[in-house]
Amino acid sequence: MKEQILKLLRANPDNYISGEEICRRFDVSRTAIWKHIKDLQEEGYQIDAVRNKGYRLVSIPDLVTAAEILEGLQTKRMGQHIVHLKVVDSTNVVAAKLADEGEPEGTLVISDQQTGGKGRRGRPWFSPPGTGIWMSLVLRPQLPMAHAPQLTLVAAVAVSQALTEVTGSQAGIKWPNDILFDDRKCCGILTEMNMESEEITSVILGIGINVNQVRSDFPEEIQGIATSLREITGHPIPRASVVQRILEKFETLYDQYVENGSFACIRDQWKKQSITLGRHVSAATSRGIITGVAVDIDEMGALVVETEQGQQKVYSADIQVS
């Protein structure tokens, strides 16, 4: 009911809606209406309440609730079912549990804060309250197990495109899973696969984005290498609109990828947004450090590095780019 009242107020930003009208529309008491209005005000919505006139929505807070994300979201599956939490250890952990319980593809878990956010190789991810986007999607791709890591690359293209549009500045992809502006990290992507009898049952796609932090908000040790959308644009950005743009971009690319069964159909888009190709890299792999110039990415998503010994393919590694 609270969401319905909010939707009604949102649809009439220049008019007061009387309590009588709300009662009539939703068949509830004046007391119930006032309770929902008060709850919305406590969440940060500025609502004028004027005797004999009714209620009017004055301003909307920067929230990543289901109500804010679903308002105007143009997707068929991605984000159509949302689990919003105020504080969580890790959205990936919650999403994996929901996937095991049978939640449909496209289910979105999003939180205002993570206390145990993580990146690749279990590294901690700084996830303070109210400033960033900490979210995970449940995916159920009908793909061979070996293709699952490519979903990180597909997501990187979607996120890079979305953040470029949101900021008006070109975002770049650092292979395999980071989104950077001017060589400073803004976003990390982490995919985790669940299997049964060598078949993919679900893939959890975790995305963490620094949105409205300022430089002093970051721990001192990462201030020189991290950035946020606010730092790029010079002004705060509504987080829900960023989530919407990412979900819409990702659904299009994901469907294209699954339909083709190959990263090849998205490879050219990835290469256009890459800040890795053409640069000297040092890749720490399980078989040692590979150094050389990143010259390409193959159809499986492996990074092709030109070394003194010839071309070598890197499938998984931490890389330094210079």
Sequence-ordered SSE layout with sheet pairings:
Blueprint (H helix, E strand, L loop, with lengths): L1 H10 L7 H8 L3 H14 L2 E5 L3 E6 L6 H5 L11 E7 L2 H10 L7 E7 L17 E8 L10 H18 L4 E3 L3 E4 L2 E13 L2 E12 L18 H5 L5 H22 L3 H10 L6 E6 L2 E10 L5 E5 L2 E5 L3 E4 L1
Parallel strand pairs: 3-4
Antiparallel strand pairs: 1-2, 4-5, 5-9, 6-7, 7-8, 8-9, 10-11, 10-14, 11-12, 12-13
Task: Give short descriptive properties of this protein.
322 residues; Arc Repressor Mutant, subunit A; BirA Bifunctional Protein, domain 2; SH3 type barrels; 3 domains; seven-stranded mixed sheet; five-stranded antiparallel sheet; 9 helices; elongated
The level-1 CATH class of the largest domain: Alpha Beta
- Give me the Rg, rounded: 22 Å
Question: Could you please say which CATH topology of the largest domain applies here?
Answer: BirA Bifunctional Protein, domain 2
Mean pLDDT: 93
SSE pattern, N- to C-terminal: HHHEEHEHEEHEEEEHHHEEEEE
Spatial gap, N to C terminus: 54 Å
The rough form would be described as elongated
- Summarize the biggest pleated sheet: 7 strands, mixed
Keywords: ATP-binding, Biotin, DNA-binding, Ligase, Nucleotide-binding, Repressor, Transcription, Transcription regulation
GO molecular function, one term: biotin--[biotin carboxyl-carrier protein] ligase activity
Function: Acts both as a biotin--[acetyl-CoA-carboxylase] ligase and a repressor.
InterPro entries: aa-tRNA-synth_II/BPL/LPL (IPR045864), ArsR-like_HTH (IPR011991), Bifunct_BirA (IPR030855), Biotin_CoA_COase_ligase (IPR004408), BPL_C (IPR003142), BPL_LPL_catalytic (IPR004143), HTH_11 (IPR013196), Transcriptional_repressor_C (IPR008988)
